[in-house]
């Protein structure tokens, strides 16, 4: 009898996973200013109930995918030790994570799990500035996670900090391996970008000031989506969003030439067999290498639709060496694209995205992003100059220990 009830419960949760995009799409019907609407008590109850159902569905989905992933990984010394290091790393940074999680779940400025497509992971989180007096610039952010553990909430710290500077942030979720392979990931991200470009005005965003940003694996996926869209646009094909609509692309600690990275990832614990499964075989590595795609751009039209591209990388990054960004910028410049590389001496793969923002105070990468986005807005630049220093979220001793134990 217990097994019958368990089976029925699992079936119910599966049905939630299948039906959730449909239910949420009904919920997300276009309206004038959803960000200013106040929910009644019954509406808040229904919204909470929907979120609980979605959380249960996602828990079931992630658990089943975890077991499937374990069957791919088998017993491997490198990935097991890195998994343990990841657990310790997360515990050391927990004081900061808890504060960010409180903001993520309880702030009225966060719109969680906005549906942008028909897949269970086709959702995005919106981080909205408190001041809604005019249209705001928008950053579309694609999180990293080795193509396996990416999740939209990983961008909540960036979302919170940019929203404090009057910038809307849309953090995209997408299918991870083994739920999907690289073509699914690129398709999801492209679909998410299209949703933001076509709907952000309803949330107070400026469609003429949209920036695309990716970190680590997210930088690779978003760069693939950008290059693919530029090629389609230059050929006159029908597109759901235009690469030329983006003001700039920011790539943080990304890898853009896959054939050059296979052996490096294998040594780091992302085994060749797994990586090739993610990338749909060795024959597809060039197809999903933005650097190689850039070198193949023999059309001036394709180059002209590319936005300004800025890559950021730490020189002590051992997960993806900084030379990966260097050679991508060189390839882009060789075909006439506008591209630049900013290196941070001694910074690791996680320093730029986690430790430095959690440290508070001055952050070179963050300041560069905000200054670039607000470059044409004198009032915003003046507010940035007078903004108080960002507060520290984690004690320095824990940050130093986390840096030493980091598996990335």
From TrEMBL:
UniProt protein name: protein-S-isoprenylcysteine alpha-carbonyl methylesterase
Topology of this chain in the membrane: Multi-pass membrane protein
GO cellular component, one term: Golgi membrane
Compartment(s): Endoplasmic reticulum membrane; Golgi apparatus membrane
Main location: endoplasmic reticulum
Keyword Transferase: no
Enzyme Commission no: 3.1.1.n2
Organism this protein belongs to: Cinchona calisaya
BD-FAE-like domain ranges (all copies): 124-332
Record family assignment: Belongs to the AB hydrolase superfamily. Isoprenylcysteine methylesterase family.
Keywords for the protein's UniProt record, in alphabetical order: Endoplasmic reticulum, Golgi apparatus, Hydrolase, Membrane, Transmembrane, Transmembrane helix
InterPro entries, sorted: AB_hydrolase_fold (IPR029058), BD-FAE-like_dom (IPR049492), GDXG_lipolytic_enzyme (IPR050300)
Keyword Acyltransferase: no
Gene3D superfamilies: alpha/beta hydrolase
Chain ranges passing through the membrane: 83-106
Catalyzed reaction equations: [protein]-C-terminal S-[(2E,6E)-farnesyl]-L-cysteine methyl ester + H2O = [protein]-C-terminal S-[(2E,6E)-farnesyl]-L-cysteine + methanol + H(+)
GO molecular function list: hydrolase activity
């Amino acid at each position: 009898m217990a097994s019958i009830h368990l089976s029925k419960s699992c079936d119910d949760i599966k049905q939630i996973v299948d039906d959730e995009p449909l239910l949420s799409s009904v919920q997300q019907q276009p309206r004038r200013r959803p960000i200013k609407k106040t929910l009644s008590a019954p509406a808040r109850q229904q919204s909470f109930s929907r979120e609980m159902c979605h959380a249960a569905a996602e828990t079931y989905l992630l658990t089943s995918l975890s077991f499937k992933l374990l069957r791919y990984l088998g017993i491997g010394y490198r990935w097991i030790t890195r998994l343990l290091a990841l657990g310790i790393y997360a515990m050391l940074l927990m004081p900061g994570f808890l504060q960010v999680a409180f903001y993520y779940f309880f702030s009225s400025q966060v719109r969680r799990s906005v549906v942008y497509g028909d897949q269970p992971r086709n959702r995005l989180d919106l981080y909205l500035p408190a001041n809604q007096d005019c249209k705001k610039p928008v950053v579309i952010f694609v999180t990293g996670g080795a193509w396996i553990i990416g999740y939209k909430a990983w961008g909540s710290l960036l979302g919170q900090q940019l929203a404090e500077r009057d910038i809307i942030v849309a953090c995209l979720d997408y299918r991870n391996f083994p739920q999907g392979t690289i073509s699914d990931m690129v398709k999801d991200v492209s679909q998410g970008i299209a949703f933001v470009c076509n709907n952000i005005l309803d949330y107070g965003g400026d469609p003429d000031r949209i920036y695309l940003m990716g970190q680590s694996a997210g930088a690779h996926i978003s760069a693939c989506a950008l290059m693919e869209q530029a090629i389609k646009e230059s050929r006159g094909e029908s597109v759901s969003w235009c690469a030329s609509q983006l003001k700039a692309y920011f790539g943080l600690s990304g890898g853009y030439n896959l054939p050059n990275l296979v052996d490096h990832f294998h040594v780091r614990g992302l085994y060749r067999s797994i990586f090739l499964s993610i990338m749909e075989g060795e024959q597809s590595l060039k197809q999903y290498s933005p650097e190689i795609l850039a070198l193949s751009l023999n059309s001036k039209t394709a180059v002209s639709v590319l936005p300004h591209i800025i890559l950021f990388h730490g020189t002590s990054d051992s997960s993806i060496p900084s030379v990966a960004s260097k050679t991508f910028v060189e390839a882009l410049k060789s075909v006439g694209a506008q591209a630049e590389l900013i290196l941070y001496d001694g910074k690791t793969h996680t320093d730029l995205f986690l430790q430095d923002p959690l440290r508070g105070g001055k952050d070179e990468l963050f300041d560069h992003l905000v200054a670039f986005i607000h470059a044409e807005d004198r009032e915003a630049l003046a507010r940035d100059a007078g903004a108080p220093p960002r507060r520290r979220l984690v004690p320095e001793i824990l940050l130093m220990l986390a840096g030493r134990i980091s598996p990335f």
